[in-house]
Amino acid sequence: MITVIGIFANPALAEQAADYLLANEFENENIDRHTNDPTRAESDRVGNLFSHLYENQDEADHYASLARFGTIISVHAASTREAQEAVDALNNHGAISVDANDTRSLLIEKIIVPELRLRG
Question: What is the pLDDT of residue 40?
Answer without folding.
Answer: 62
